[in-house]
Amino acid sequence: MTVLKTSLRSFLSHKGRMLLSGIAIVLSVAFVCGTLVFTDTLNTTFDKFFSSTASDVTVGPEEEENAQDTGREGMIPASVVDRVRAVEGVESAEGVVINTQLTVVDEAGDSVGSSNGAPTIGADWGPDIQRSMELTEGTEPRGAGEALLDADTAERADIAIGDELKIITVSGTHMVTVTGYAAFTTTNPGAPYVLLEPAAAREALLGAADVISSVHVQAADGVGEEELRDRIVAGLGGGFEVETRAENEEAMNEDVGGFLDVMRYAMLGFAGIAVLVGIFLIVNTFSMLVAQRTREIGLMRAIGSSRRQVNRSVLIEALLLGFLGSVAGVGAGIGLAVGLMQLMNSAGINMNTSDLTVAPSTPVAGLLVGVLATVVAAWLPARRASRVSPMAALRDAGTPGDAAAGRVRGVLGLVLTGAGAAALVAAAGADEASDGSMYLAGGLLLTLLGAVVVGPLLASVVVRVLNAIVLRVFGSVGRMAGRNALRNPRRTGATAGALMIGLALVGSLSVVSASVVASASDQLDRSVGADFIVDTTGEQLITPEAAEAVRAVPGLAHVTDYTVVSLELTTPDGKSTDEEVIAADPTYAQDLRTPVVAGELAAAYEPDRISVGESFAEDHGLSVGEEITARFVGGDEGVRLTVAAITSEDTLFDQGAMYLSTDTARAHLPAAEMPLNSVMFITAEDGQRAAAYPALKAALEPFPQYEVSDQEDYKQQLEDEIGMLLNIVYALLALAIIVAILGVVNTLALSVIERTREIGLMRAIGLSRRQLRRMVRLESVVIALFGALLGLGLGLGWGVTAQRVLATSGFSVLEIPWPTIVTVFVGSAVVGLAAALFPAFRAGRMNVLRAIATD
């Protein structure tokens, strides 16, 4: 009880000094809890939507695994509805039409798509969808040429009743007039909905009047879902997929769940980095508090307190700090989740705060993370406090340094760093990406630990160099700032280490992203012979109508069709595999110059010929001239394909791909099963390239879902996409860097308190307030630059090694973004200045006489 009282009294007397450490805990726990609450709420939102749209039993087409992607939705005969209604136990059965592979274009020629990546959905305005949507304005569609639009999309895209929309599907283009708006009665999943009269929907969305997408069935009272499913299966026979509500919801949840799991674990990973950085801050805080309370602890030991009691006293303070910070962090996390929900609402996914889901495990996880991180971080300072002797009560504050411990720390740090460096070298020299990745992971961990452990030893050397280069121009004030940074290398190393982690990740990711872009650009220049590429901006394939518009452009030497065909291959060794094979025109050998290790690639485009990748050939013992037995999914079986070429994997584009000609695919697939183009490659006639580019863009203007790019455009798109991804990662890393900045602030603030008497004496002998503030700011800058040097040095090593590992997958060009590295380094100095504002202001405001009188 005495230990608890002492801990409480000490905690309350130093609550100001604990504040910034507490903020670090709050931020870290908030990120963890906010992620959990947000993803749980997303799950709840989609669960409600799936529950509101699912019927007791759903009857749909039986889809073959690895089926060809024809751009068409699965269909069943409309007559199936009457057959289902005749089954005993069916209360109602409605035919449903739905198409998720379409584009809706407004009168300005812009795509009415979502901004969150969700597909545009076309459906029939029938009894089934009216269970989850209601007409909010205007009139229902009464025939062909009329449609409803969901209210959220209409508001976002500024589409009024009476406006015309163009619906583009594989079956053609259809014009409709908006007659009204419909809104979801439960949750808007974020996808644009265009709703047509049922008969018109079958024609426009599925291309025929006598087909539907599925049958949604409601069971009569007293009939279970599984019982009704079994009856329907018995009544219909084979050829259909029949699912209960539970099975349907589970399937839909699996589709969404994979994405949500990736999001959750990625965000928790960044939260973990923030927690790790926060541990540095807490270690530093308690180390300084223990040092400042050396005399107090010595007196406690002199009057009978045991080592265990002193240790327990410090850990109780850490427990209090961790608990209070974690409680606040849980609350802040819920607020963060609400903010993320508002962000999703602005992106078109309506998330209501009434669906806010706080699972019991979420606050428990937050408390565990915060409390355990704080207690673990405080263990070393607590252990150090327990070793304070009673004689320390007779000395000035400040624990004496342990030279032996410092030597052990230095040796351990050098060993860890050396082992990590060896692992990185092994990763860079690995022949296989899997081996390289394993060595890289070990190298990252060991070099990080080594840098953390050896940080104080490096501080003694690096800070002296920084003092000579950066602080010399500031005269005596600069020299004093440098000496203050060197006064406690362990503290300086720990403070800089927190900043080092975030900047190391920034530096390594910068190198990797720049190298990926440079490698892709280099491969594009060396391998791609086509002048232009037609690609999709979403997941919709290139419709026949759009492909014909491309071919009709004058001045083109050739247009290459490029699609992906699903095959089941049986090799001479008796093994069968499902493979996706590229089917292209023979001109593709000119459009993409893929190197071969055997045979001629042009021969692979002859009838019933195929090329295989180097690894596939090695795995199955294949050589040029051997035959593979193929089944074209949905088409011919037992087709004998002769291996005409084996392609090298020393390439970035189509690495390991198999090729055959589109004529071979068409010969063995029914027209309805032939996949649509996913890309088209175009080469202009000599002298026509400049004119062909705008002509192609004009030809595809009615189809905003497709994009024409030349090689420079393609490079820019790649750079923009990687840059966008990198910005998201940097934004998530910003939390860790903010926590690191708090660490610098806290270290300086506690250092100012520790040096109160010294500051008073310096002021008494003539140091001005301005000079004092400059001294504190310069000390902060040196610490920040030291952290930046460590972090960027590590980051460059990690990034270069990662690029060498990626080189085994074709990313062979190393590009170091020096402007980014220099900007981050200079920015670190700015961060140091910003972090010193409050401590410098506080130091300058000290009363000289009171400071001198401080014990």
TrEMBL record:
Subcellular location: Cell membrane
Record keywords: Cell membrane, Membrane, Transmembrane, Transmembrane helix
Chief location: membrane
InterPro entries: ABC3_permease_C, MacB_PCD, Macrolide_Exporter_MacB
Transmembrane segments: 265-291, 314-344, 364-382, 411-430, 442-475, 496-518, 728-753, 778-800, 820-841
MacB-like periplasmic core domain segment(s): 20-233, 492-692
Membrane topology: Multi-pass membrane protein
Domain spans labelled ABC3 transporter permease C-terminal: 270-390, 731-847
Top-level taxon of the source organism: Bacteria
Keyword Membrane included in the entry's annotation: yes
Entry similarity comment: Belongs to the ABC-4 integral membrane protein family.
Name listed for the protein in its UniProt record: FtsX-like permease family protein
